[in-house]
TrEMBL record:
Name recorded for this polypeptide: Flagellar hook-basal body protein
Entries under PANTHER family matching the protein: FLAGELLAR BASAL-BODY ROD PROTEIN FLGG, FLAGELLAR PROTEIN
Every Flagellar basal-body/hook protein C-terminal domain range: 223-267
Species assigned in the record: Niallia taxi
Domain Flagellar hook protein FlgE/F/G-like D1: 112-173
Keywords: Bacterial flagellum, Cell projection, Cilium, Flagellum
Chain ranges of the Flagellar basal body rod protein N-terminal domain: 5-35
Amino acid sequence: MFKGFYTAASGMLAQQRRTEMLTNNMANSNTPGYKADQSAVRTFPDLLQQTVDTYSQNGKTTKSTIGSLGTGVYMQEAIPTFAQGDITQTDLKTDIALVNINVPGDDNNTAGSIFFNIQDANGETKYTRNGNFTLDGQGYLTTGSGLYVLDENNERIQLPDDNFTVSNEGILTSSAGDAYRLGVSYTADPKSLVKEGDGLFRAEDGQALESAYTAGGVSFQLKQNFLESSNVDASRTMTDMMSAYRSFEANQKILQAYDKGMDKAANEIGKV
């Protein structure tokens, strides 16, 4: 019976974590460039049950298989989906969207992805699909949280004002005539990236991603005055949240049933 406690409790924990992940997706359904997470739920290894019989006359031991016993489930990880979100017009010069045209993956079943290059507070290069940029007090092009947007040479971009243009090829030209090429990186395996807060990703091995401009077979465009929307499917997320809640509730009722059985075993049968 104790095994039933553990199995039901593991199901509740898995669904609780899945609900938290889905709630985070829903909260970011309007966040530009946000990539929704999907859960990977796995089962713990099954236990093989056998009986062992020993005959006293000749000491012969025999084993007979009863069957396997499940030991519960767990949410192994949350995996981002890198499908491109809708491209929406904002008419803000500091909004820039990455538009995938042909971004091959490392095999025929997956697609690669491209990202803006961003410098975090520690000077490390991170990657994002959120092109909702702005200018800080010193004229640097930054993200909404104040991180610096980098050019193709991983240098910060400083502008005299927000009266600049961005071509489809990524060339940013300021009102003073200075030209920069926005830093855009490419990976054939985006699932190898580590997701951080604020829509940022980092390379798992710490190595910089290759430039999307020189990567073979990669084609894309940059669109000024546009933003990539979140790729969260709100209706499906709500359905998945209800499913996770009902699964949690079912495991909870099983746990309560085991608890009542243990109560009777301890307080009623034990009196006999």
